[in-house]
Design brief:
The chain contains no helices and ten strands. It is mainly beta. Strands 1, 2, 3, 4, 5, 6 and 7 form a seven-stranded antiparallel sheet that branches. Strands 8-9-10 form a three-stranded antiparallel sheet, with no helix packed on it. A hairpin with a 2-residue loop joins strand 1 and strand 2.
């Protein structure tokens, strides 16, 4: 049998805070949950460990708040850890926290030369908010 039955895992933004919630319908030997955040889906930062309920056959709702998120798309990963250390990760969820739309202020190729919209290949896009992104354009 599975260590937990996850009913739902979701995130909502309210007053500059990302509120994460998840619901379990049963738990077996559930030690704790790991909640992590990423803005690229590859590099993860720990937000918090939350104690599990051990063993339960009733619905349990868990909540945490994430205040120091980036003003970008934020990905969240929930991992459950058993008392024996075994782990299970669940579906990654996302929320778009970009408050202002970013505009491209400069587009350069990998040689550092400015290119126009007809260019095809790898480019570095520089945005109005000071961020940049490497991207392949067809």
């Amino acid at each position: 049998s599975l260590p937990i039955e996850l009913v739902d895992f979701y995130v909502e933004n309210e007053r500059e805070v990302n509120n994460l919630s998840w619901v379990t319908s049963s738990e077996i030997n559930n030690d704790y949950f790991i909640i992590e955040n990423s803005t690229d889906g590859y590099n993860w930062d720990l937000i918090k460990n939350v104690n599990g309920s051990g063993n339960s056959n009733t619905e349990i709702i868990y909540n945490i708040s994430h205040e120091s998120y980036k003003k970008d798309v934020n990905y969240y990963r929930l991992t459950q850890v058993d008392f024996d250390g075994k782990k299970e990760s669940f579906k990654i969820i996302a929320i778009d926290n970009s408050k202002e739309s970013k505009t491209i202020v400069r587009k350069v190729n990998l040689m550092g030369l400015d290119v126009d919209d007809s260019y095809s290949g790898f480019v570095i896009l520089y945005f109005s908010d000071g961020t940049y992104q490497k991207k392949f354009i067809n």
